[in-house]
């Protein structure tokens, strides 16, 4: 899933006759991969992730189908439902990656604000911020480190800083980064106080992330309780069907399967409702 940033850097703005031979070869290599920058609005699951998601969800659906219907064909149908789950898992992983990028971006703003306060230019501040981020996040595949390296390489190739930041904001697809890019580009063109803008932006994003974390802590227990309550009816039916098969026999014949189907639909509706309630936007 993660590709080394060295194979994804883009060269813009120079013709080959302006470059040294080694620089020209780098330009040729980077031009071949110029469209391979990460788009955070699209998440590509690895084969391992897809197989794990299909296997786990398929087994869960098959087990629930067997508990409620006691028919192997329906259990196999439930197993096949696991093939539909990667698309939903992909959306969830995409949101988690954006949240992780947003948290790392807050640290980048703090570093940039410090660098600008020391009197460095905007371009030099981005370079210093990249160096600081590599110390904060030793992982070479860290999202924000990769993105700032892309920005620095574009600056080295003569591309305007506004274009590099705007492209990053477009690919990130998060409200905070997009707002920062808009304000940054406006201040850069009109001569605004970049130090104060970045400091205020970092403070606002930091406060927002703290609120999100507080909400996550508050709803974590309720989320766990809701999952227990959703699993309780299924566990109860399973225990009764295996311990007292005669008592549960009417539910597996006649109109019994319709009653079981109604119960599953109610559980599915409860799961959807709980998910909507727990999804608190800030």
UniProtKB/TrEMBL annotation:
Q: What is this protein called?
A: Pilus assembly protein TadB
Location of the Type II secretion system protein GspF domain? 111-240
- Extract one GO cellular component term from the record: plasma membrane
Superkingdom: Bacteria
Its membrane topology is listed as: Multi-pass membrane protein
Q: What is its main location?
A: membrane
Q: What keywords appear on the UniProt entry?
A: Cell membrane, Membrane, Transmembrane, Transmembrane helix
Cellular location(s) = Cell membrane
Q: What is the lineage of its organism?
A: Bacteria, Bacillati, Bacillota, Bacilli, Bacillales
InterPro entries, per the entry = T2SS_GspF_dom
Q: Which organism is it from?
A: Paenibacillus lutrae
Q: Transmembrane region positions?
A: 51-84, 228-245, 251-274
Q: Does the keyword Cytoplasm apply?
A: no
Which one Pfam family would you cite for this protein?
T2SSF
């Amino acid at each position: 899933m993660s590709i080394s940033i060295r194979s994804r850097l883009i060269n813009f703005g120079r013709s080959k006759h302006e470059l040294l031979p080694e620089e020209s070869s780098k330009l040729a290599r980077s031009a071949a991969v110029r469209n391979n920058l990460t788009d955070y609005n699209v998440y590509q699951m690895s084969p391992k992730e897809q197989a794990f998601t299909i296997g786990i969800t398929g087994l869960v659906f098959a087990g629930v189908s067997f508990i409620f219907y006691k028919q192997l064909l329906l259990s196999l149908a439930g197993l096949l439902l696991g093939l539909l789950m990667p698309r939903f898992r992909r959306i969830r992983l995409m949101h988690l990656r954006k949240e992780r990028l947003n948290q790392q971006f807050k640290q980048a703003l703090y570093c940039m604000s410090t660098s600008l306060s020391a009197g460095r230019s905007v371009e030099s501040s981005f370079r210093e911020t990249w160096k600081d981020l590599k110390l904060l996040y030793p992982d070479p595949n860290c999202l924000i480190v990769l993105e700032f390296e892309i920005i620095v390489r574009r600056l080295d190739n003569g591309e305007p800083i506004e274009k590099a930041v705007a492209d990053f904001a477009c690919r990130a697809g998060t409200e905070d980064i997009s707002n920062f890019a808009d304000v940054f580009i406006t201040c850069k063109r009109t001569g605004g106080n970049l130090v104060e803008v970045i400091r205020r932006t970092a403070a606002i994003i930091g406060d927002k992330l703290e609120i999100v974390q507080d909400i996550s802590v508050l709803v974590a227990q309720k989320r766990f309780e809701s999952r227990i309550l959703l699993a309780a009816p299924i566990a109860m039916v399973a225990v009764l069907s295996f311990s007292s098969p005669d008592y549960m026999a009417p539910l597996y014949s006649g109109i019994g399967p319709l009653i079981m189907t109604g119960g599953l639909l109610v559980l599915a509706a409860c799961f959807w409702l709980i998910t909507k309630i727990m999804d608190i936007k800030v």
